[in-house]
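Batch job 17 of 40 flagged for manual review because the log was empty.
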Amino acid sequence: MKCANCQSDLFGEFCAHCGQAAKSRRGPIWQVVAEFSEEVFAPRSKLITSLFTLLFKPGLLSRKFLDGKRVSVLPPVRMYLVISLAFFIVFEIPDIDVSEQNIYIGGILLGHETPIEGRPTFSVFGGRDPADPVNVWFAENFSEKIPLLKQNNAQVTMERILNRLEDLLPNVLILFLPLFALLLKGLYCLKRILYFDHLIFALHFQTWLMVMIIIIYALATINLYFTWLTILIPIYLAKAQKVAYDQSYWWVVPKTCLIFVIYILLITVVAAGAILGAIVLL
């Protein structure tokens, strides 16, 4: 037999010259669907085994990939794309009912002249005190938008802000990958690890993080008690670094704390930018 791609002689399931599979993917649609389902959902498929390793064995998937054991695991980019697709299908930012809650944006109370007593109070941007530095900055730079915040339909305003956050979320997650890898490069500069290796670790961790957010979100809809599972995130990150970078917890724990501080700062900046962007479009 000859390889359909390069016409080299075939001596197995794959061409030794170009790597193309000897078996053709063409055939009846039911056969193609059956083969795809078997590859993806079979108990020993790369997706299932890689996800199991990623979820329950922190850092091991990155270690195996970087050690050259790549045939037995799903490529990091492919797994990230599969999980991110599921993430954005399942996850959505909860709706906020302005009529039942006290929502402040830049010190402006939406939908009410005075706060409703006994109702939950949230500050989306800035605090409730007009003298708050963030509120003062907002009043100076968005003075023409303040009447609109007070006069427009408050629920519509809130929905626009939340929709903009949902639109930005996929771009933010992708942006975090090279930034996270760059941060790891700085934290582990003495080990002389390639930036590519840090990027693989970032892909695996962010994939795991999306899976955990889906799980926590699903459980929290049943009982808010399950939100305590978020404590597993820093624990997993510390354990994954120890395994992938072969470093003691004396170094890993402070690095994990620093990573989370920077993560929170980035999320805060992005969320604030999304809110201000939505207000500009009012």
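Reviewer: the log was empty due to a logging misconfiguration, but the result itself is present. Residues 1-41 form one domain. Unflagging and moving on to job 18.
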